């Protein structure tokens, strides 16, 4: 009987010891020698809890400078990752306004798209922060690369075998601006057949004139894709130039600089770069798709805009990204990438207090 009681007592001691070891063995065993085979429950670190993703929807032509701003921003904000999502500016904005997709920053290659498409429902303010100009890009292998000039480019594009293109007027500001340049060229070069020869004969894009204003109808462009190619984003054409798939493509000067392309600068009267010729630019406009109908984009100097949408998940970080963009860091990056910054940035609407010292209020 005594032996039985003794055995039971020993059994209870062993069972308790096992239970205690089992409970302590699952906690913090990483520093215990020989604990590699034990099951551990990881504890989330403070750094992981602080990781934040800042989403930036931006025009494709801003990819180069925004990648540099992203790098600087992430260096100054440990635990923050900036996710850049390039697209045509119209498509960038539609992701917010039509699809309800959150973005902490939206940057457009045409500042006017922000008040037209986002204010007041999806944004309260916007800034103008950079300029650009339209150029005709090409490579050393492009047909007639050694002959093309600012005086004969439209004749070169019309030669047999030459392949050229621009982006989709329905999704990309560079796309609806390209035919504007071609239409403006008619008056400048005193040749009223330039648009029909280059565009009309190779697509379903047409032009009508009323009261001295030319409307380019591009809602359903249907290019022949032999002579004239149209792609959703202007940056897609860069790869085609580099690969030899196209001889020439209309781009922003900054895109040409950032991608080491050869490019032809055109007269300011037609390249949409100067406020001195704003009235002349306004004589052309492009009609493009908008929802089930159409909208009209008026010719104007190329000016970029940026805002933080109301739907932003991290609006404070969005503001800080914009602050860096329009401040000394962003200005230096934009200038180096061939995209002249507007200093100070122009402010419209209810611009947040945090940005007002860097902004000149316009309206």
UniProtKB/TrEMBL annotation:
It comes from the Archaea. InterPro entries: ABC_trnspt_W-bd_WtpA (IPR022498), ModA/WtpA (IPR050682). Gene3D superfamilies: Periplasmic binding protein-like II (3.40.190.10). Pfam families: SBP_bac_11. Coiled coil: none annotated. Belongs to the bacterial solute-binding protein 1 family. WtpA subfamily. This is Tungstate ABC transporter substrate-binding protein WtpA. It comes from Methanoculleus oceani.
């Amino acid at each position: 009987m005594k032996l039985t009681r003794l055995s039971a007592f020993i059994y209870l001691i062993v069972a308790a010891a096992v239970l205690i070891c089992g409970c302590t063995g699952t906690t913090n065993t990483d520093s215990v020698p020989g604990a590699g085979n034990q099951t551990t429950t990881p504890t989330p670190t403070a750094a992981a809890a602080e990781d934040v993703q800042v989403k930036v929807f931006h025009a494709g032509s801003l990819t180069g400078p925004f990648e540099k701003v992203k790098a600087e921003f992430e260096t100054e904000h440990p635990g923050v990752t900036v996710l850049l999502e390039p697209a045509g500016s119209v498509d960038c904005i539609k992701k917010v306004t039509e699809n309800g997709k959150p973005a902490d920053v939206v940057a457009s290659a045409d500042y006017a798209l922000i008040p037209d498409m986002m204010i007041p429902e999806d944004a309260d303010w916007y800034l103008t922060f950079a300029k650009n100009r339209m150029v005709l890009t090409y490579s050393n292998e492009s047909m007639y690369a050694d002959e093309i000039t600012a005086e004969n480019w439209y004749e070169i594009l019309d030669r047999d075998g030459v392949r050229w293109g621009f982006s989709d007027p329905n999704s990309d500001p560079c796309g609806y601006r390209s035919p504007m340049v071609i239409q403006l060229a008619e008056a400048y070069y005193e040749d009223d057949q330039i648009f029909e020869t280059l565009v009309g004969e190779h697509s379903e894009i047409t032009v009508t004139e009323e009261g001295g204003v030319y409307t380019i109808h591009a809602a359903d462009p249907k290019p022949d894709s032999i002579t004239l190619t149209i792609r959703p984003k202007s940056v897609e054409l860069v790869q085609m130039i580099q690969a030899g798939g196209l001889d020439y493509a209309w781009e922003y000067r900054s895109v040409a600089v950032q991608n080491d392309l050869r490019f032809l600068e055109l007269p300011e009267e037609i390249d949409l770069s100067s406020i001195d010729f704003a009235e002349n630019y306004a004589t052309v406009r492009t009609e493009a798709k908008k929802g089930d109908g159409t909208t009209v984009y008026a010719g104007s100097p190329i000016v970029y805009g940026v805002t933080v949408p109301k739907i932003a998940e991290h609006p404070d970080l969005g503001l800080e990204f914009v602050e860096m963009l329009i401040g000394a860091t962003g200005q230096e990056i934009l200038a180096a990438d061939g995209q002249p910054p507007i200093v100070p940035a122009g402010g419209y609407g209810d611009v947040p207090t945090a940005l007002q010292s860097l902004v000149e209020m316009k309206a």
